[in-house]
Amino acid sequence: MIKIDTEPFGKTASGSNVTRFVMENENSMRIAVIDYGCTVQSIVVPDRDGVLRDVALGYDTAASYEKGGCFFGAFVGRYANRIKNAAFTLNGKTYHLRKNEGENHLHGTFSHRVHEGVIEENAVAFLIESPPSEEGYPGTLKGKVLYRLTEDNALEIEYTAVCDEDTVINLTNHTYFNLNGQDGSDILDHTMRLHADSFTEINEEKLTTGHILRVDDTPFDFRREKPIGADIASDDRQLRLTAGYDHHMIINGTTGTLKEAAVIKSHASGIAMTVLTTQPGFQLYTGNFVHEDAAPHGKGSVRYPRYGGFCLETQGFPDAVHHPDFPDSVLKKGDIYHSKTIYRFTVDHE
């Protein structure tokens, strides 16, 4: 049986109360989420020796979540990733979005406000609403992001949304994982296997060019298990542009079906994580700039280093509004947007 408790988690600068919801299963796995940004604040799982480790980067206070710039654990939208020139055309009309990364639009505001949280069976759900023209998007978007803890040590994240006008949408979660825990180590010795034969090329602005590249004979080939850091320092232009991995990996298989996307292991802790999703891809990010975070430190006063965590942000293709060959990101009026991702934790006794 999943136990769910609530507790205060401070206040925002504007005085809004922040609440933390803590879910715990029979195996002592605990997941804490806060209503500020629908944020995954901690994921505590047993290692090979039964010692509990918090494998999600984050902060101990609401103030740090407001100050920090890394989106630790955050729910992001209306559109995850980047939209070129902060504008798109839909049904013959051009919409101008908020420019929040140079001339471009990144992620949106969902991660920067308090959402209403409700307890459901074995889960915590947050209700989301975005009024018409917020950040320039059309229509009133309403929906829900649900975090469920299972007895087999999995975090399930499910998104649903509807809009009263045609719009574009791309929702994801931005949790950074370090399967060693909160010891200030990097993740370069974690091993990773990805079910991805290709990825989207980026330019100097980290925008997709629209070209899809094969991983063959590149540092992006994780089809066989290898350390994350094995090729991260390679003289590869795509890696040089971002000082590491920050690319949309395209998952093999049929979009819309729940399929395995990745397996990551820490041989130090014995903790392994398998990722399954209905999405067509995920942003692989290796925490290339977490050491420059605006918040003074992470949990337990730890200052996270470069490559201190990795993200697998399951999502639709970045900037799909400008690339008709990419899977469509348009949500038609009255249609239901739905996606599901599972992060399952196990112990590797090797």
Q: Topology as H/E string? A: EEEEEHEEEEEEEEEEEEEEEHEEEEEEE
**Bulk shape:** globular
DSSP strand count: 27
Instruction: Specify the biggest β-sheet.
Output: 9 strands, antiparallel
Question: How would you explain this protein's 3D organization?
Answer:
Helix content is 3%, strand content 43%. By secondary structure, the chain is an all-beta fold. The protein starts with a strand and ends with a strand.
Describe the secondary-structure layout.
Blueprint: E1 3-11, E2 17-24, E3 30-34, E4 39-46, E5 52-54, H1 62-67, E6 75-76, E7 79-83, E8 87-90, E9 93-96, E10 105-107, E11 116-120, E12 123-130, E13 141-149, E14 154-163, E15 167-168, E16 172-173, E17 191-194, E18 196-202, E19 208-214, E20 226-227, H2 237-240, E21 246-251, E22 259-265, E23 271-277, E24 281-285, E25 311-315, E26 330-331, E27 337-347
Antiparallel strand pairs: 1-2, 2-3, 3-4, 4-5, 6-16, 7-10, 8-9, 11-12, 12-13, 13-14, 14-27, 15-26, 17-20, 17-22, 18-19, 18-21, 21-24, 22-23, 23-27, 24-25
Q: What's this entry about, in short?
A:
The chain is mainly beta.
Tags for this model:
350 residues, mainly beta, nine-stranded antiparallel β-sheet, five-stranded antiparallel β-sheet, globular
